[in-house]
Design brief:
Blueprint: H1 3-30, H2 38-51, E1 61-62, E2 75-76, E3 79-82, E4 89-91, H3 92-97, E5 104-107, H4 115-133
Antiparallel strand pairs: 1-2, 3-4, 3-5
The protein binds zinc ion.
């Protein structure tokens, strides 16, 4: 087995472990107890309906995105993409401990733009963001 395959397996394991912990926490928080006051029951029911299939508690998985510091793949949780370096992504752990001097894009959920496509348009995105920040371009939200 290749090293990157082992890392992927390990990351999947970690993902499953996190998922299990979250499920257990939800069960613990929403399980019913005897003689519980009604408001508590209502809040628990609301919580259950919100978390339905635990969607709010599942860490996001950025498929095929490799952290360029620890080489974890896929990146689970927040993904940070450097705006000034080509093809440079970081996982949350590495981003937090890193000395940052460059701007980064934070992806809370997997990008709908493919990795390669994003690399292609990144130089233009950089220019666009800079000109927005400099006030040369303004976004007009007509909603
Ligand atoms: Zn990392």
């Amino acid at each position: 087995m290749q090293e990157w395959e082992q890392k992927m397996d390990k990351n999947q394991e970690e993902f499953n472990k996190q998922l299990k912990i979250r499920e257990e926490t939800i069960n613990k928080l929403t399980s019913e107890k005897k003689n519980e006051p009604k408001p508590v029951k209502i809040v628990k029911d609301m919580f259950k309906s919100f978390t339905g299939n635990n969607c709010h508690f599942v860490p996001e998985k950025h498929d095929r995105i490799v952290c360029d510091s620890c080489y974890k793949c896929p990146i689970i949780g927040d993904r940070y993409k450097c705006l000034s370096r080509h093809g440079y992504d970081l996982c949350n752990d590495c981003y937090q401990i890193m000395n940052k001097t460059e701007p980064f894009l934070l992806f809370k959920t997997p990008s709908t733009i493919s990795h390669d496509r994003l690399e292609d348009i990144l130089p233009y995105v950089q220019i666009l963001i800079r000109e927005i920040n400099e006030g040369k371009i303004k976004i007009i939200y007509n909603d």
